[in-house]
Design a protein that fits this description.
Bound molecules: NADPH dihydro-nicotinamide-adenine-dinucleotide phosphate
Oligomer: single chain
CATH topology of the largest domain: Rossmann fold
Strand order of the largest sheet: 1-11-8-7-5-6
Strand content: 15-25%
Helix content: 25-40%
Length: about 300
Amino acid sequence: MPATIIDGKAIAAAVTSALAEEVSQLKQQNLQPGLAVVLIGSDPASQVYVNTKVKTCEKLGIYSEKHLLPEDASMNDVLALIDQLNCDPKIHGILVQSPPPPQIDEEAVVAAIDPAKDVDCFHAENVGKMLIGKTDGFFPCTPYGVMELMAQSGIDPAGKHAVVVGRSNIVGKPMMALLIQKCKGANATVTVVHSRTKNLPELTRQGDILIAAIGKPEFVTADMVKDGAVVIDVGINRVEAPDTPKGYRLCGDVKFDEVAPKASFITKVPGGVGPMTIAMLMRNAVKACKMQNHIEIR
Ligand code: NDP
């Protein structure tokens, strides 16, 4: 049987439409979630990401502010802005677009964000909360989006062997942390593989669920995948395509055409995990607003 394609766009649209409803209920209580997005420098890809986030806020009725700092902004400039946003009652969530220019110490910037406003879940306090299974912090948007994709597709990770390829702080490690939690929608047995792993294909072939987050175009080939596996492709890679108007095309970390026939479920790039990342950021912003106003989280 051909794999079911998990439609990230449709699932993200369902998530955001439920959020729009929550936002309109908050308005009846004179509350409006507010998100501040900080961009340092003028990296074109980062500009696109920031604009998409701001546009999504507008669509949902979330108040947003875009703060653009010059390429040569100093740490003091950035920390002063974070300080101001931490104190601003209109702002419930703060996001600093990654990667910043080299003079900026990203870890120090993240540490300066009030954990209650850390909607990216990069602050050590929120990462720690996630790891010990607390739900009064945030979950990082991309792995959280993967969990939601599976939940909405009727895939229960409980008792399954999930293999995560990649161990970054943004995707691989939190992916592992969410999958192993002792709670509904998780309870997986998790293996994390990375660039120092020996016999990587031997391990990926054991995955009932295989999650690729490496940043290497079409790295995962059919021979690395178990028959019937759920395959989630987090990768977003630009590869040259001189015949296309843009001169490049986007592809994932999975060789879709040859892996899809072996999988039970699979995501596409684009249109898989990508839209979920923004949807979950919005969910975190609404949650932040509710928590800061002592409103019960459902
Ligand atoms: P990083 O570069 O931070 O991490 C990549 C990970 O993959 C590292 O752990 C690295 O291992 C591992 N890796 C690299 N090469 C190999 C290899 N040959 N064999 C085994 N493991 C390898 O990337 P991110 O986690 O930030 O992102 C991964 C991908 O996901 C990228 O394509 C990125 O664009 C995409 N992404 C997509 C998002 C979305 O919204 N859909 C959001 C965030 C990221 P080691 O640690 O040993 O170096």
